[in-house]
Amino acid sequence: MKDNKVWVAGLFYFVFIPFLLVFIYLMSSGLEDVLPLQTFSPTLLSVIGAHYFHLDFYHLLSNLIFYLVFIIVIFWFDVLTNRRMLFVNMLLLFVFLPIFCSLVDIAAFSGKSFVGYGFSAVAAGLFGYLTFSFLHFLRDYYKMEFKNDIMAILWLIFFVNLFLISTTYAYFYIAVCLAVLILVWAYRIRFDILKIFDVLRSKDRVKRTVTMGVLTFCLFVGVTLLFPETIRYNDSIIDILAHYTGYSFGIIVPAMVSTYLVERGER
Fold first, then answer.
1. Does the structure show a pLDDT above 50 at 241?
2. pTM for this model (two decimals)
3. Rounded distance, CA 196 to CA 120, Å?
4. DSSP symbols for 204-262
5. Residue 236 confidence (pLDDT) above 70
6. d(CA 186, CA 180)
7. Cα(163)–Cα(89) distance, rounded to whole angstroms?
8. How far is it, in rounded angstroms, from Cα 245 to Cα 19?
9. Per-residue model confidence (pLDDT) at position 14
10. 115 has which bridge partners?
11. Average pLDDT, the chain
């Protein structure tokens, strides 16, 4: 892919999306009755627009910070090893994910008076995709030859994060089942896990530290930030369902599209 296309992708992620979020926030007083998703009477505009709408400056700021942290790292990984996904994700994460999350909210809160808005679901989706982007980078940039497909490693990280979410909200029976699944799955792909650490040992300290830092963030840190124990913020309830839906969509759907469509189409 030519460098000028990378610049187009950079403008979309680092200029257009932040500008859109800030612009809609500045116009929020006139859009308050139009963009928020009201599950009892949704509109086509609110199904997408609600995910770009904020009423509170600190809500906007926190989502922007999360977004920029995730997208900077993702952009770096994908520019080096998976450039086509820079454009595929414009649709997957910024159009299809908001629609999917809104439909899940409508189904979950059917018949109830629930109003949802905010960029959190998209930020959670980016966090999910970061895991695949990181694994793809490890495989292609460091020329790692895994015994299993990287999707197998992705599922392990997904299970670990679901375990952490379950313990956060005291779903202990689910957590126990996930713990067993994690042990079984980790044993199944143990050679690939060891391969990652063996390759990293051969790298210099800076590369090893940065790589382990991203891996730790994908496994433990990010999920605790996106799924806080207290779900009340001021007088509002955090839509944890949107966070969970966005994260699940982000870690699974783009990874499957990249693995089974984009990469196979390039062969």
1. yes
2. 0.88
3. 31
4. -HHHHHHHHHHHHIIIIIHHHHHS-S--EETTEE--HHHHHHHHHHHHHHHHHHIIIII
5. no
6. 10
7. 27
8. 25
9. 96
10. 38
11. 86
Q: Which residue type, as a one-letter code, is found at position 206?
A: V
Q: To the nearest 10°, report the CA torsion of 21, 27, 33, 34.
A: -60
Helix (H, G, I), strand (E, B) or coil at 115: strand
Identify the pLDDT of residue 235: 47
Sole residue written with tokens 């979309």 = 12
Q: Give the closest residue to 264 by CA, choosing from 137, 84, 126.
A: 84
Q: Could you say which DSSP state residue 264 is in?
A: H
What the block records as the tokens of 121 is 């679901």
CA 104/CA 259 separation, integer angstroms: 25
Comparing CA positions, the residue from 240, 226, 237, 257 lying closest to residue 96 is 257
Domain boundaries, the chain: 3-266
Q: What's the chain's length in residues?
A: 267
Ranges 81-90, 139-148, 201-210: which has the least confidence: 201-210
